[in-house]
Amino acid sequence: MDRRQIEPGFAVSGQLFPQDLPGLAAQGFRSVICNRPDGEAADQPGFQAIAQAAAAAGLQALYLPVQPGMVRDADAAAFAKALSDLPGPVLAYCRTGIRSASLWSLAQAGQRPIAQIVERTKAAGLDMSGIARRIAHGGRTPTDSADAHADVVIVGGGAAGIAVAASLRRRMPDLDIALIDPAEVHYYQPGWTLVGGGVFRAATTARTMASLIPRGVRWIRAAVAAFDPANDAVIIDACRVVRYDRLIVCPGIKLDWGRIEGLEATLGLNGVTSNYRYDLAPYTWELVSGLRSGRAIFTQPPMPIKCAGAPQKAMYLSGDAWLRAGVLGNIRIEFMNAGGVLFGVKDYVPALMDYVRRYDAGLNFFHDLVAIDGPGRRAVFDVAEPGQPARRVERDFDMIHVCPPQVAPDFIRASALADAAGWVDVDQATLRHKAHDNIWSLGDVTNAPNAKTAAAARKQAPVVAENVIADIRGQGPAAQYDGYGSCPLTVERGKIVLAEFGYGGALKPSFPKALLDGTRPSRAAWFLKERMLPPIYWQAMLRGREWLARPEKLPTAR
Fold it and tell me: Under CATH, to which class is 148-253+408-557 assigned?
């Protein structure tokens, strides 16, 4: 914990963990304020865990979440009231302390000179000069001047962002590129299914962001608050402005854990787990390897979600583990799917149904998880079957694997870049924004009708890179994306159904059928998933080496 003392009686810090609370109490603190929304990062403990540890240590805890870079006047007022109401000394925390210090600074506005506010935060190692500018402009952020500028600005340092940065650098090595992302750790998320299946260790799926940013690309470690496309500007935290000639938007998708009542309070406890989080995937395997009887539930929310096969991958690997352990006959498996089909591309369903029957799994379609009582081990589902009255059902469980609802990030949904559903509005072939010619998007955040997978981003990155370079050279779009996505469905340990498809469900196999028939389970596909794809991800995709991902030319560009 990196604690920064702002003044007597108030300090800020980065992310707290439950084990930190007794030490804070021993240092004399009496209250903590959480300014970080739950579910912001894969390795972040929820506020409920912090609140329980705080209570045990004799501290009061308050939840005042603020989205990165989006400190509103109302947030500052609520923070000022909290400082007045809570017993001091008080420690406020977020990811790095910046949001908490910004809230304190704005809460002090009008009560003390701006210079004093900036001086105290600066002495604590936190630069609030951007707050001073915001106050001086009546709460508005001016975009007529910039704190930084780049030829190409990339928002998002996940698989899509780093891959497109690397592809751009390979095509034009002297291109001035800035990448904006606050995270310090990058995760190979496709590996979490195998962590939950006891095949990979979680640590092998994580690397530092600094080790992956392509050489020559400036990394701006900040969160995006807003876009101002009329002025070619991105507003980042502390009200700073980054200007661009061309913008690429790929911040990924938001896991909306809070939409399911009671879920956040019980994640990682009471048999409730999810392979969609780095810290929980090992708990999945702990539950699977320890379960000898009872009911195991696997859920899938309404689409869109990233890697739509992941919820059932967890079910298949768990069923296989119980079959091998000789306890499958004592375990009732239920798959609760908010949709109406097992998998969206029908060619792969027969092979998957063979495994559904092998594990004697119950398929329950149109069942949407809406609430969980962790201590009571009870899950609540809304059921909306076509032609039937809506109803609500409950299921007891001994373990439950939850796939959370998923939406575009808040700062995307609130922006001028979004369509009516909140996703970045792009042409599905060129991935160029429909209204802003100098903006492109790729990855999970676009509204292109493709599967949201890392494999899709691997194919999209070269397309965007080709089209951005063509635009820089004064040419029209040069490449097109065909909707390719891949979902290696881990149906048992050692075998995979390798689903590869494009727009409209058209099959897009990477290998000849005689070598690898993706519609049938195979050991070759397992070898690809376990042994080949991780190094391809780290050493090829994120370094601009476009193995099996060369962009397809537009017909007019041939």
Answer: alpha beta
